[in-house]
Write a structure and sequence with these properties.
The complex is a heterodimer of chains A (193) and B (147). With 193 residues, chain A is mainly alpha-helical. Chain A is built from eleven helices and no strands. The chains are: A mainly alpha (193), B mainly alpha (147).
């Protein structure tokens, strides 16, 4: 075993016999670009709505529910897709979330949510996880679009301006505290809030 | 005899159709599609409105689009519940909403009062299709005393 490791170490540390320095540096650079580009493209593909609703769990449940809400259809046609709210935009946190999502692949493989009933039974747990995540990161995914600095209270309704100028600005509350169920139907809320 | 009855029914039906029996349907023949009025947004100015009579369920002075009121959740109660009214300054629901049909007071909103929009509705700025001739009791009393 030790000999095997030593042999590999020697190969790694001795200069190349056949390939030129130019080939190794330029080739390495191009290879790196191709690898990184490919990796990122593949990861971005898993961020598309098309990818998310390819599974019936998403297509038949949560995707149906977002359609009448303002995040899917509205006067100006700007809309949020799944990953805008459920995946952090920042690279490191995005990677962390993507690794967590491997659990969802497991659930998909073994059919954890195969029917509407199974989804409804699990809804509270799933929603609770997202609420907790948004509470912990101060509703980061909301704030990617809804910037507090750009909110014009005079353009909001009286109730909205009141809540945003007091509870949101002081940091007492974060978006998700009041705006639960904004894009999907709520689970059993007894004992919540 | 039977023919006479069906004939009379048919006649009544035809005349009522011609005389625009349904006031909500514009005077357009049944085989044609009437032009519908454009949709209007609900008033959203948070100004309480006057009730037309004492028992009238107050109308909602804000929009309630996509408010979820079902077995799982009641969006209205996040502000209008007794416990939340202090924080939100919303009108708390009346004590009558805690009573069951036998007049017993329950700990929470009574199931028969749970679905808010059965009685409380938003208001829109539109021309009413049907004219309203309602007069409240104060107007009637005033008229009587004037006579």
């Amino acid at each position: 075993m030790r000999n095997l490791l030593r042999r590999y170490w020697r190969t790694l540390t001795t200069p190349s016999k056949f390939y030129s320095l130019g080939f190794l540096t330029i080739g390495g650079f191009i290879g790196g670009v191709l690898f990184w580009g490919g990796f990122n493209t593949a990861m971005e593909f898993t961020n598309t709505e098309q990818f998310c609703v390819a599974c019936h769990e998403m297509r038949d449940n949560v995707y149906q529910e977002i359609q009448p809400t303002i995040h899917f259809t509205n006067r100006s046609g700007v809309r949020a897709i799944c990953s805008d709210c459920h995946v952090p935009h920042n690279w490191t946190f995005k990677m962390a979330r993507k690794m967590q999502a491997s659990k969802e692949v497991w659930g998909w493989l073994f059919g954890t949510i195969d029917t509407r009933e199974e989804f409804l039974a699990k809804r509270k747990e799933l929603a609770g996880r997202e609420w907790e995540r948004l509470k912990a990161n101060d509703s980061l995914e909301c704030r990617n679009c809804h910037e507090f600095q750009s909110m014009d209270f005079t353009r909001q309704s009286k109730r909205g301006a009141e809540a945003h100028s007091k509870q949101l600005s002081s940091g007492d509350k974060t978006c998700i505290d009041c705006h639960k169920g904004i894009a999907h139907r709520l689970p059993e809320m007894a004992g919540q809030q | 005899m039977r023919f006479k009855i069906t004939g009379a029914l048919l006649f009544a039906f035809l005349t009522s159709a011609l005389a625009q029996h349904d006031p909500l349907r514009p005077a357009v023949p049944f085989d044609q599609e009437p032009k519908t009025a454009p949709l209007v947004n609900a008033e959203n100015n948070d100004r309480k409105r006057v009730r037309s009579y004492a028992m009238q369920p107050p109308t909602i002075p804000h929009k309630t689009d996509n408010y979820q009121v079902d077995k799982n959740a009641n969006k209205c109660m996040t502000c209008h519940a007794r416990t939340r009214a202090g924080e939100t300054q919303a009108t708390p629901i009346s004590i009558s909403h805690y009573q069951d049909r036998d007049g017993n007071y329950l700990a929470d909103v009574s199931p028969r009062r749970y679905f808010c929009d059965q009685c409380h509705v938003v208001q829109m700025q539109t021309d009413p299709t049907v004219k309203n001739r309602f007069q409240d009791v104060d107007t009637l009393i005033k008229k009587q005393t004037k006579k």
